[in-house]
Amino acid sequence: MLWESIRMSWKNIVTNKLRSFLTMLGIIIGVASIIALITIVQGATNSISQQVTSLGANKITVNAMGTPLKQGLNEEDMKNIAHLKNIKGVSPTVLTKTNIVYQDQVKEDINVQGKNEVYFQSNKSLLQSGRAINILDIQSKNQVAVIGQELVTALFYGVDPLGKNLIINGTTYQIIGTMAPSSGFSATSTNDTIVIPYTTALRSLGVKNITALDVFLVDTSLADDTVLDIKGVLNAAFNYNDQAYSVFNMGDIIASFQSMMGMMSLLLGGIAAISLVVGGIGIMNMMLVSITERTTEIGLRKALGATPNRIQVQFLIESIFLSIFGGLIGLILGSVIAFIASTLIGVGYTMQLSTVILAVGFSAVVGIIFGYMPARRASKLNPIDALRSL
Fold first, then answer.
1. Mean pLDDT of the chain
2. What pLDDT is stored for residue 1 in this prediction?
3. Is the pTM of this model over 0.70?
4. Residue 285: exposed, middle, or buried by beta-carbon count in 10 A (0-12, 13-18, 19+)?
5. Which parts of the chain fold into alpha helices (H)?
6. Cα–Cα distance between 174 and 64 in angstroms, integer?
């Protein structure tokens, strides 16, 4: 009985191709919208998450605003934090802007950052060529520099900068390395930056304090406890003035961002699902019209012994077929739209299985819900009344 119902439903769909396609159109648009929107948002989320994560999911950032009595952090404060539990390494930042000179070229207001070896060890992709600053450069206060790509292009176009001398604030530094092009947020871009040993920066650039610390953790699950320990050190350093510093747990920021983007995906998916409901209403309308047109057929089948349950199953299967076929066409269309849009806006294209199951499964449910009422009406037709329409 079931196979016969499937065969008759399929035959009716194929016989009325244009009407079947127009009936499926709402489902096609709804599923295509869900697939395209969720896939594009997920691609953008993954792309931004990778950039945010590259800032350090295992990192706590300390910014020192200071007080009138203590302008920033010193090396003793940094060592006290480095000796806390769950700390893998601490990278200080000594920041200033100054003029640099190479041969007869002068560049004004260039970012110069004093760092230690941990800065490069924590992110191996920072260095493009040459070598990074090491512990000997820190201890000996060597006058060496690693420069960003914008400066490489501006000062050494077509020339290998390694080994060349650069004058920073009147002092000669040897270029020992270049940094890879930075595609991160502008606040963390290193393209226009020169990195030198922080000990050299404190001695030569007229900067007296460490302005920030990047604290790298052994175990990110203990980040909250580590933040409390760091605040204990900073409270003692700034005479318990908690307005003198700020502590950011990057893991919390990344988790909050991912949660926000997840909610946005659900919101867009919910908006697109409205199209599916509209499509379901379209299926119900077309099924009701079809039942009216096929009243005679239903009457004859009942007169020949077809049970109401068999009539109901046949029309319900027809409705589910329309929804599933519409869902599959929408899946293909939505995938193509998502791929083109992802390519145009420059984010990764990732189609997740859960998105496919959600879209196609929801379209099948819509077919069952909106097909039930017409199927029920068809099953309850009186065969005598139906045959009168002959």
1. 83
2. 62
3. no
4. middle
5. 2-15, 17-54, 75-82, 117-121, 135-140, 149-155, 198-204, 223-237, 250-293, 295-303, 308-345, 353-379, 383-387
6. 30
